[in-house]
Specification:
This protein is of the alpha+beta class. The chain has a domain of about 90 residues. It is built from three helices and eight strands. The longest helix is centred in the middle third of the chain and has 9 residues. About 5% of the residues are buried. Pfam families: Pollen_Ole_e_1.
Length: about 220
């Protein structure tokens, strides 16, 4: 807890090799279990209790945890050094895992950077530093720079589309007139139209029929 916030913040980090004392007892009796353990690289410590959870619930509630020493001389003052709050964290393969809460060390004197307001980084510079690799400009020549930042060649000039002549369609051929249809004998004639002329067959003279005698005229 570098900035005395009594909480884990961006200025905090895990301390490995710190010593923690674990004591368990029931009431005011002599501690039935006392062991000192050290934290790992993640700031966590583990201790195996010698009694069963479902049989010795009071002993587990009577366990206390106390910071003894820090592995970092510049951050060796116990800020939160004692905890008696034990909470069940998980059960893995029949094993009950409890958590003793958060412990922290702090420096003897508060560092100066804790009083500085966090500056808002420039968005362009932040994006550049976040996504672009650090490249020494002196190691790049003009050709490599162009290939790095302009990888696509320019679009070549395209010639204009040539003029297309109009499409000539052949003329429509002459259609013959519609032939005359005879009247339908089953339909009544239209009163607004004149009656058609009846078709008369041509008269043919019978050659076997004798000619009639010429008329007789009285003498003058």
């Amino acid at each position: 807890d570098a900035c005395f916030q009594q909480n884990f913040s961006s200025r905090s980090h895990f301390i490995s090799g710190a010593s923690v004392a674990v004591k368990c007892k029931v009431g005011k009796s002599v501690p039935s279990f006392n062991k000192e353990v050290k934290t790992n690289e993640n700031g966590e410590f583990k201790v195996q209790l010698p009694f069963k959870v479902w049989k010795q619930v009071k002993r587990i509630k009577g366990c206390t945890f106390k910071l003894i020493s820090s592995n970092e001389p510049h951050c060796s003052v116990a800020s939160v050094d004692t905890s008696s709050s034990v909470n069940l964290k998980a059960i893995k393969q029949g094993e009950h895992i409890f958590s003793a809460g958060l412990f922290s060390f702090k420096p003897i004197k508060k560092p100066n950077f804790c009083n500085q307001k966090p500056s808002v980084p420039n968005s362009k510079a932040h994006v550049k530093n976040e996504f672009l690799p650090n490249i020494d400009p002196s190691t790049l020549d003009k050709k490599s720079t162009e290939d790095t930042f302009f990888p696509f060649p320019p679009i070549p000039f395209l010639p204009p589309i040539p003029f297309l002549p109009p499409i000539q369609f052949p003329p429509i051929p002459f259609l013959p007139p519609i032939p005359f249809l005879p009247p339908n004998p089953f339909l009544p004639p239209n009163p607004l139209l004149p009656a058609p002329t009846p078709f008369l067959p041509p008269q043919v003279t019978n050659p076997l029929q004798p000619l009639s005698p010429p008329p007789l005229f009285p003498p003058v």
